[in-house]
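Summary for the funding panel

The consortium committed to producing paired sequence-structure records for every protein in the target list. Below we show the first two records in order, beginning with the earlier of the two.
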Amino acid sequence: MIGLRRPLLGALLLASGSALAGGCQQFDTGHGPVDLPGCRLDGGHVVLESSALGALDYDTDGLAVVLAGDGYHLVTRQGRSLPVPTYDNGPDALQEGRVRGRVGKRLGFFDARLQPAFATTFDFAWPYEDGRARVCNGCRPGPPDDSGDGHVPVVGGEWFWIDRQGQRLPD
């Protein structure tokens, strides 16, 4: 059984702001969510006007975080966006040049330009560490554990490791 954090902080932040009303917010670590005029959610992706793109706080990889709909989205300076899972109560981050992104109800891996790293998607995936990622197909969220810290186990399915090109590694 693998532990997975539920998006507790993200859900609280979104419920407290206007992102649920179809707008977007950027997350300011010093002040919490801040409304982002010129941003909207369309078909599961954020669409930003140039004024909104210019207002975002980009990290050293050129990515910014936007809250929209029911989750986090990474955005490039060019306006490409990717819905990402919540990890430890925040947006998934680029690790070893890869970030997990939502592809329908599955997860895929993307590069720093938010382009697919490879075509394969998975029912669940952990971030890359030491050049490989643990993934599964056929797994599903289980019942929340009793710890009260928001962990939901991922149960069942077939678990295996993949390399940076998405190829299955020997056990």
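The next record, for a separate protein in the list, is shown here:
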Amino acid sequence: MRVPIAHDLPKEEVRRRLRDRSHEIANFVPGGMAEVTTGWPDEDHMTLGVRAMGQGIAGQVIIEDRQVIFEVDLPPALSFVEPMVAGAIREKGQKLLAPK
């Protein structure tokens, strides 16, 4: 699943905000029991690993000039929640990029 979020920030600012706020991603998962790991294989890609309720989901965030793309690999058993997950990513992704 790919969820693009438009922005008008310099890439350096997008990187800074994502690095500063990546710890908040666990709070976006319902139930409050999520474990989130992040990594930066290069300056424009943040990897994500989310574990909650016995399920693991991998993803990445791709930083582009005018958009940030959240890519999430949902297991087939969770494909029915894709619209709900995409909506949550749009809403919470905007919050990650917003000024504090």
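Regarding this second record: The chain has a mean pLDDT of 89. The CA atoms of residues 11 and 95 lie 16 Å apart.
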